[in-house]
Write a structure and sequence with these properties.
Blueprint: E1 5-10, E2 24-28, H1 32-43, E3 47-52, H2 55-61, E4 67-71, H3 76-82, E5 89-92, H4 98-110, E6 116-119, H5 123-132, E7 136-138, H6 140-153, E8 156-163, E9 166-172, H7 187-191, E10 193-199, E11 206-207, E12 219-224, H8 226-233
Parallel strand pairs: 2-3, 2-5, 3-4, 5-6, 6-7
Antiparallel strand pairs: 1-4, 8-9, 9-12, 10-11, 10-12
Helix pairs in contact: 4-5
Length: 236
């Protein structure tokens, strides 16, 4: 059988026990997205197999990830040799090589990996990955652009979209919500939003309740449909 994997490397501190199976993830493609994700997963105590077709990239991260391997995962035999089918999660961090991204995703599905995240560089790419069967599709550049656009054009301090039409926003409290308990503000019926958190000057964030009274200058966390939280955050 031909060898489809080159230079498999392992890194483990002797005092560290093996990670539980559900905390093992294969990150395929160690570009900016893949290596950033892999580093964060390592920081949170996950066991990470980092795979890239470029041996020079693999060598660069061989001392920082649990395992690394130089392999072409468009060939399903490479995944077999790496044992990726035994992982509960895998991330396809291949972006610009769209055909390779699709092939690797399909191979992971065929290998039976139950939780596959795939990076897309466009909505069309993302739709293709979803049709292939990827369980989660991420468009990091699009999502970051959307987030920054919201911050630039409005009073939002942060913006996170959770679904196609649902978002969470951090913003300065507008006048319509100040001075009365939230339970009496009728925010949900009038504006379609809910305040779930509040931060007063010099204090930490805390949960908002029906008795919470919002003051001028308070920072609030608001949830609701995207258009509703956009409109609410634009209020003065």
């Amino acid at each position: 059988m031909a060898d489809h994997v080159h230079g498999m490397r392992r890194r483990r501190r002797k005092e560290q026990p093996a990670s539980p199976r559900e905390q093992r993830v294969a990150v395929i493609g160690l570009g900016r997205f893949g290596r950033s994700l892999a580093g964060e997963l390592m920081r949170h105590g996950w066991e990470v197999l980092g795979v890239d077709i470029d041996d020079r990239v693999v060598q660069k991260f061989s001392d920082t990830l649990t395992h690394t391997a130089a392999a072409d995962c468009t060939d399903p035999e490479a995944l077999v040799q790496l044992g990726v089918g035994e992982f509960t999660s895998a991330v396809v961090g291949i972006g610009t090589a769209i055909e390779a991204s699709m092939l690797v995703t399909a191979n992971l599905l065929d290998a039976g990996v139950p939780n596959i995240w795939a990076m897309a560089v466009s909505r069309q790419h993302g739709r293709i990955l979803e049709r292939l069967g990827a369980h989660h599709v991420v468009l990091p550049e699009h999502e970051m652009g959307e987030r920054v656009a919201h911050l630039v054009t409005g009073r939002m301090l942060d913006f996170i979209r959770f679904d196609s039409d649902y978002a969470l926003v951090k913003t300065i409290a507008p006048s319509v919500v100040r001075g009365i308990p939230l339970g009496e503000s009728r925010l949900r019926s009038v504006y379609g939003v809910t305040i779930v958190g509040i931060k007063r000057l010099g204090e930490n964030f805390t949960h908002a309740t029906a008795e919470t009274v919002v003051n001028e200058g308070d920072v609030i966390i608001v949830t609701g449909r995207t258009a509703d939280v956009e409109n609410f955050s634009a209020l003065r």
